[in-house]
Amino acid sequence: MTIVAPTPLRPMPALPGAYEQLELRHARLSRFDHLGAMLDWDRLVNLPVGAGASRAAALAELESLIHGLRSDPALGDLMDRAEQELLDPAQQANLREMRRQWCLGQALPADLIEARAHATVACELAWRQRRSADGGRGDWTGYLPLWQEVVRLARIEAAYLSDALGLRPYDALMQRFEPGMTTAELERLFSNLRGWLPGLLRAARQRQAGWPIDPDEPADVDREAQLRLHRDVMAWLGFDFERGRLDESAHPCTAGVPDDVRLTTRLSPGRVIDNLLATIHETGHALYEQHLPVRWRSQPVGRARSMAIHESQSLLFEMQLTRHPAVIAELSKRLTTHLGAHPAWGPEALQRRLLRLSAGLIRTEADEISYPAHVMLRYEIERDLIEGRIEPRDVPALWDEKVVAYLDADPRTQPGSGPMQDVHWSEGLFGYFPCYAVGAVAAAQWMAAMRCQLPLDDALAAGDLSPLRGWLDRSIWSQASQIGTVELIQQASGAELDARHYKMHLERRYL
After folding, report:
1. What CATH code is carried by the domain that includes residue 369?
2. N or C of the chain: less Cβ packing under 10 Å?
3. Domain boundary among 145, 174, 203
């Protein structure tokens, strides 16, 4: 008789702890977010007009699924248990961001998420088709019914979030883009800017009164040559084309995820330099995304801190860096290499073109000094719209009134200058616009901090952008969402957000 020893039982694998389960769930969510970003990018770049309804249905289905996963009540129990576990500081920050996202998701019903997806896709397609009508003012009559539905749903969303967060409706919507931002804080910043920007603008315009007239740009520049130029400049700035690409859309934007960043730009005829600036702006966004920490890319803490910080990156590259004399000289060379010699992009003409102050009424083409005015007038309109003090039909007249007040210009003198010029309202992004003004102020603060810590101007004169990128990587990009916006600004620059850096920068450059 043979006695066989029993096979020893393999130990059961330990069940993952609550925090580990949360990481696994959010890694899955990040993959769904990636799919959604690709659908959105394709909608902006490739979608045929007749495919709008089916794409809206697909996006609504996916957004409902993501919303259900992100607001799952079971996550609340897991987060409560995870708080009792031993976590390192990065994990604690990740748990904090998980809870913030969960609370926002819990506040909104699934049917609202689905209805919003349908409404915004339909409205964006209508905006794309109608924005150039009426001499560039847009076909407001045809657009209005679709936009009214977007506004109606945004007000419902604001009410739900207001109840959940204990904030006024507009403040509640801003939490999606800039956690912690309030109207009271914005008013302090905007009051400061209103106090000195108009006088600075007048003085700078007087100083430029004797400047020669800029040569006209050629109207027939080859589109493919422009795209080669844009890709060349993007690569010089540091964009990794193995993890991203550039395409065209009606409104420049950045979409995707850190390892799959999709930029879009516009190629408007006769606007070669403005087109290039739009791409440089989006490249600032893309560099932030591509440099977010690899370890945390599937987790909430690995996301960009906020849209104000995001816009500080795009505006740093577009406004601060691109108008530096050494960078202007480099761009002049690249314009000539790709597009041939032309008076409009000789070094001196290009410098005047980039520094010239104008009464331009297009936000994305605004000069540095008037840019905050474009943001403030949009903020005031959307705040009053969300909180019911005005209705969608009132916006065109109110827009014209505020353009006169803020920009001292006739709003009917420039094609494309009306309230349909930006895509944000069509996509229901109410609460986003203030991030541009905060970002412009922060960008000046980043440059001031870099100049204190680095031989920045010497590096730029040598065509070397690596010190600038290195500082941004250490101070902004690698931090992701480990700390809040206020703490990030303090940590990176040594001071809280202060508009005096923006004022000093503008005075030094323009006066």
Report:
1. 1.10.1370.30
2. N
3. 174
Distance in angstroms (rounded) separating the CA atoms of residues 486 and 504: 21
Q: Please, what sign has the CA dihedral across residues 58, 63, 69, 73?
A: negative
Has residue 134 got a pLDDT over 90?
A: no
What distance in Å separates the CA atoms of residue 319 and residue 280, rounded to the nearest whole number? 9
Token pair belonging to 469: 């990128």
Structure tokens at 132: 């150039």
Question: 3-class secondary structure for 250-276?
Answer: CCCEEEEECCEEEEEECCCCCCHHHHH
pTM over 0.85: yes
Helix (H, G, I), strand (E, B) or coil at 246: strand
Q: Which amino acid is at 24?
A: L
* Local structure of 295: helix, strand or coil: helix
273 touches 345 (CB < 8 A):
yes
Query: Which domain range does residue 91 map to?
Result: 18-174
Same domain, 447 and 501: yes
SS3 label, residue 436? helix
pLDDT given for residue 15 in this prediction: 63
Task: Name the amino acid, one letter, at 399.
Answer: W
Looking at the structure of the chain, the number of domains it has is 2
Q: Determine the Cα–Cα distance for residues 394 and 289; give it in Å rounded to an integer.
A: 38
Q: What is the DSSP letter of 247?
A: E
Could you give the C-alpha distances from 508 to 268, 367, 391, 443, in angstroms and in order?
A: 32, 15, 42, 15
In angstroms, rounded to a whole number, what is the distance separating the alpha carbons of residues 158 and 274? Answer: 35
3-state secondary structure 68-113: HHHCCHHHHHHHHHHCCCCCCHHHHHHHHHHHHHHHHHHCCCHHHH
Task: Tell which residue, 316, 315, 293, has the closest CA to residue 304.
Answer: 293
In this structure, the strands spanning 260-265 and 253-257 are: antiparallel
Q: How confident is the model at residue 511 (pLDDT cuts 50, 70, 90)?
A: very high
- Beta strands across the sheet bearing 253-257: 244-248, 260-265, 253-257
